[in-house]
Write a structure and sequence with these properties.
The chain is an alpha/beta fold. The model is unreliable at about 1-5 and about 285-300 (pLDDT under 50). It is built from nine helices and nine strands. The two termini are about 25 Å apart. The protein is globular. It folds into two domains: about 5-130, no CATH class; about 140-295, no CATH class. It has a four-stranded mixed sheet. Strands 7-9-8 form a three-stranded mixed sheet, with helices on one face. The relative contact order is 0.16. Helix 4 (about 140-150) crosses helix 7 (about 220-240), helix 5 packs across helix 7 (about 220-240) and helix 7 (about 220-240) crosses helix 9 (about 265-280).
């Protein structure tokens, strides 16, 4: 078996996840900007279930050529085995545990964040080729983008008033520069998806406090909403087949996120859960199925 990574001995799963994201940022990699258009949506090879929320970000950031994962036991059941020296990756989930109330007034059920280990199929050998599905990619990304916009429930009005893209929660509209003012059509939809995710926070939709309350630039609530929009837009880009764009991952941008994550170890998991809920709303829940209930919208 593998030598366990010291990080996996930490009991605080929030800190394990945050440490992983910080590790990537310190290398100059921004994990939430990485699409899975060419590698497929991360899913469990044995069950076919898709990984959601923070798990999608963690598994996509590993950089495998195919995003199929499975547990050690599932690998054995398929007749495969691990390649020598391969190490596992974590998948987090919520476990509800019954505990005694502090005041002695009976029992209560509390959620705890836990993890289990999985391996990518590239770390294995002996799995029958017939068990590995082929990756299918959208043939016309622009048509796919338009379909999402046209079918989004309660889609806000999209206007072209100024050159600055933004979402106005007070009057519930999105302003976008004209498509011809972007370098490519893909750039236009990438920006529009970002604003669409913001719009899901309106009180007539998901009523996200990060949108409906007035939070100044640079505050934690502002940062959460911006990361929610970035993550949600990346999911929609991948789904429609828009390839990863050249990101402006400048030093100040990355250092800003490092600072935020170091202040709050729960930040990344909370933001990813909000992004998942936003995407579910935009897609009318047709393409995303809940794997487990989780508290306060913190989906793992």
């Amino acid at each position: 078996m593998e030598n366990q990574n010291n990080d996996l001995r930490i009991r605080d799963v929030y800190q394990i996840v945050t440490n992983r994201v910080l590790e990537l940022l310190e290398k100059g990699e921004v994990p939430w900007r990485k699409t899975w258009t060419n590698t497929g949506l991360p899913r469990n090879l044995a069950t076919g279930k898709e990984y959601k929320g923070i798990n999608l970000l963690l598994l996509t950031s590993l950089g495998y050529s195919l995003n199929y994962f499975l547990t050690f036991q599932q690998l054995r059941d398929m007749g495969g085995k691990l390649k020598e020296g391969e190490k596992s990756h974590i998948v987090v989930y919520w476990k509800w545990i019954e505990t005694e109330k502090p005041d002695g007034g009976g029992k209560e059920v509390k959620p705890f964040l836990r993890y289990y280990r999985v391996y990518n199929i590239n770390q294995t050998e002996g799995i029958p080729e017939s068990r590995i599905p082929k990756i299918t990619r959208p043939k016309n990304p622009i048509d796919e983008c338009e379909f999402i916009i046209k079918t989004m429930p309660q889609c806000p009005e999209i206007i072209h008033r100024t050159e600055q893209p933004y979402y106005n929660p007070k009057d519930d509209f999105i302003n976008m520069p004209l498509m011809g003012h972007f370098e490519t059509s893909e750039n236009y939809y990438e920006t529009l998806f970002h604003e669409l995710v913001h719009s899901t926070g309106h009180n007539s939709r998901l009523n996200r406090k990060e949108v409906m309350e007035n939070h100044a630039f640079g505050t934690e609530m502002y940062s959460i909403e911006e990361l929610t929009a970035e993550m949600g837009a990346c999911y929609l880009k991948s789904l429609t087949g828009i390839r990863e764009s050249v990101s402006q991952n400048n030093i100040s941008y990355i250092q800003g996120w490092i600072k935020v994550l170091k202040k709050n170890r729960k930040f990344i998991i909370y933001a990813s859960s909000q992004a998942q809920k936003a995407v579910e709303f935009i897609l009318k829940d047709e393409l995303i199925q809940e794997e487990e209930n989780s508290p306060e919208g913190l989906k793992a």
